[in-house]
Write a structure and sequence with these properties.
Shape: globular
Oligomer: single chain
Strand order of the largest sheet: 1-2
């Protein structure tokens, strides 16, 4: 155990302040998104606790209060326990992800929520920081720059198993977050070629949806021939690799239709279609994004003012306190408020990277980069959803979006890192 006095000297208070600012501003926007002019003027004095729990803004206060208790627990636990029990927690999490689809009732088309009395928890949210712990523990035991093929398979298995189970519960958006771990692995020595190949694959798949396939095949073939003949001396040496690459790319180009029409579910296909052609269904699947962009654009430079958002008042944007919380920022606080929010997140990310870089252990450094990567992914995709640059996949905005599972998981994710960092500082003070 660690005493509070020692943590007062060692904890990174800059990160704590950023966390409190984000949570506080997030609550203001949850209140604005769920505010109703017909509500009692002073609900805290006129309504019972049970009645108050009907309001998202009050439930978010409860989640914030419990998150503060959770922080104290996380900082009291010996940080070595996060390393020691990482694999054990991972095993429990895998069992929970396997069981959840069988015991959870369907909510919004997915079976990913566990109900414990009045509390609903989403195991997929907590799987992110537990996977980060397990992957960091494993990377601390090997040298990623010199690892064997077996080591690569183990790391891939650790990272891919949770999202596969999450997809089985019909939570594709949460599963996509695990791709962010590649950024942390890249910092620890993973070949940049893997990132380049994945990025190139994504571009090819996107082009296959936008460009006639025969044109795309012809263009790629011409580019490949130019590259080969530009290096004619090594033509025979590179020919097998070139042919293999050509076969893979052609398979991707013509296989995208099968994946799009036979693998993706109907609502997933429609979301991608809306992303590629926003005007294709503005009153149907595209309604959320269309109204979100209207709300953000109507805010202008300085916004309409706190609680003055008309898109919010008349419920034009569904899920405005959760996935689309950022459009509340845009409408009521304008360009100034959205810029301030983005800057606040970027400062937090830079601070987390700074904390990660000063760790002396591979475990602490890798976990720190996992924290930064997960928050960065959520931040980019969520804001991208609200302005039509990313498909709507149900990704909450960290510390802003309403919900206990989201707030607890991001709080745990961040404060485990601060606990590890505080222990590092205490070790330095002894010498």
């Amino acid at each position: 155990m660690n005493t509070p006095a020692r943590y007062n000297r060692s904890i990174d208070w800059v990160t704590v302040l950023l966390y409190l600012l984000l949570v506080g501003v997030g609550w203001l926007n949850v209140y604005a998104a769920s505010y109703s002019p017909d509500a009692p003027a002073n609900p805290l004095s006129t309504l019972s606790f049970g009645q108050l729990m009907d309001f998202n803004w009050f439930k978010q206060i409860v989640w914030i209060g419990t998150a503060l208790i959770l922080i104290m627990v996380l900082l009291v636990i010996d940080p070595k326990a996060y390393d020691t029990f990482a694999f054990g927690l991972y095993g429990v999490m895998i069992v929970l992800l396997i069981v959840t689809p069988f015991i959870a009732r369907p909510i919004a088309g997915s079976r990913s929520w566990l109900e414990l009395g009045p509390v609903r928890l989403q195991p997929a949210e907590f799987a992110k920081f537990i996977t980060a712990l397990a992957a960091s523990r494993y990377l601390a035991s090997i040298n990623l720059r010199q690892q064997s093929f077996r080591d690569q398979l183990v790391l891939a298995g650790l990272t891919l198993l949770p999202p596969l189970l999450i997809i089985a519960a019909n939570e594709t958006g949460q599963a996509l977050v695990f791709g962010a771990f590649l950024l942390a692995y890249f910092r620890e020595g993973m070949s940049p070629l893997i990132l380049l190949l994945l990025a190139a694959g994504g571009v090819i798949l996107l082009l296959a949806l936008l460009v006639p396939k025969l044109w795309l095949v012809a263009a790629f073939t011409v580019i490949l021939l130019i590259v080969l003949f530009a290096n004619r001396r090594a033509l025979l040496h590179h020919l097998p690799l070139a042919i293999g690459t050509w076969v893979v790319v052609i398979g991707m180009v013509f296989g995208v239709d099968f994946f799009f029409n036979s693998v993706l579910q109907d609502h997933q296909r429609k979301r991608i279609e809306i992303l590629l052609n926003p005007s294709s269904d503005p009153l149907g699947v595209g309604w959320n994004v269309t109204q979100s962009k209207i709300a953000i654009g109507s805010g202008g430079l300085a916004g309409k003012g706190f609680l003055q958002g008309t898109q919010t008042k008349f419920d034009f944007v569904p899920e405005q306190s959760t996935d689309f919380i950022f459009c509340t920022v845009g409408e009521e606080w304008g360009w100034v408020g959205t810029l301030a929010t983005i800057v606040l997140f970027m400062v937090l990310l830079m601070r987390v990277v700074y904390v990660a870089e000063r760790q002396k252990s591979v475990f602490g450094r890798t976990y720190g980069y996992c924290v930064a990567s997960i928050i960065f992914f959520h931040f980019c995709v969520n804001i991208g959803m609200t302005i039509g640059l990313a498909p709507v996949v149900g990704i909450p905005l960290p510390f802003f979006s309403y919900g206990g599972s989201s707030l607890w998981s991001f709080t745990t994710l961040l404060f485990i890192l601060l606990a590890i960092d505080a222990a590092r500082k205490q070790d330095l003070e002894r010498y």
